[in-house]
Amino acid sequence: MGTMYGYARVSTKEQKEDRQMIALCEKGVDEKYIFLDKQSGKDFERSMYKRLLRKLKPDDLLYVKSIDRLGRNYEEILEQWRVLTKEKRVDIVVLDMPLLDTRRGKDLMGTFLSDIVLQVLSFVAENERKNIKQRQKEGIEAAKLRGVRFGRPAKPLPENFEEVFSQWMEKKITGKEAARRCNMPLSTFLEKAKKRMI
């Protein structure tokens, strides 16, 4: 048997990878052989994952906590699985899904069952990602209907805005000068002026 590796990924720098790291270490993976990315799984442009791919040799063993650590896009997960098992010729163990252990059932039936399970799980992972996005969208829409405002609150207009606005409307000063007097960018002054004219 070759070297044991682990791969962990969290979607943002704020998320903690502890759960994944503990699970990988419990399997006996040396921390120096665990590769960690802190970014979204929507594509495979991940520096540590790429470094891991360069290190992997035939008969090495790769542990991942769950299938969605490889990514959440159905086709990409299947493609990476193919690259790892067929091109790199490494074994993969998905800790949350014991059926996805390529060390077992190297015969035709074992490979067939593993491929079916992988396809189903990859589809479920991508579908869940879409459902999460849909729920977020619906939640935002519902919040807006309740009057919840998103983004930074608008700054109050400067005290001299009405006076400067009047001078600008009477063409006594330019928009640039009006914006300078109100201490705001020209685009902001024009936006506020447009609302004032309605």
Report on this structure.
There is one protein chain. This protein folds into 2 domains: 4-130, Resolvase, N-terminal catalytic domain (Rossmann fold, 3-Layer(aba) Sandwich); 161-197. 49% of the residues lie in helices and 10% in strands. It is built from 7 helices and 4 strands; from the N terminus they run βαβαβαβαααα. It has helices at residues 18-26, 47-55, 74-87, 108-145, 161-169, 175-181, 186-197; strands at 4-10, 34-38, 61-64, 91-94. The termini are far apart.
Shape descriptor? elongated
Overall number of structural domains: 2
Query: SSE order, as H and E?
Result: EHEHEHEHHHH
**Mean pLDDT, as a whole number?**
83
Helix content: 40-55%
Features:
7 helices; Rossmann fold; four-stranded parallel sheet; alpha/beta; 49% helix; 198 residues; 2 domains; elongated; single chain
Secondary structure elements and their pairing?
Elements: E1 4-10, H1 18-26, E2 34-38, H2 47-55, E3 61-64, H3 74-87, E4 91-94, H4 108-145, H5 161-169, H6 175-181, H7 186-197
Parallel strand pairs: 1-2, 1-3, 3-4
Quick structural overview:
The protein is of the alpha/beta class. It has helices at about 20-25, 45-55, 75-85, 110-145, 160-170, 175-180, 185-195; strands spanning about 5-10, 35-40, 60-65, 90-95.
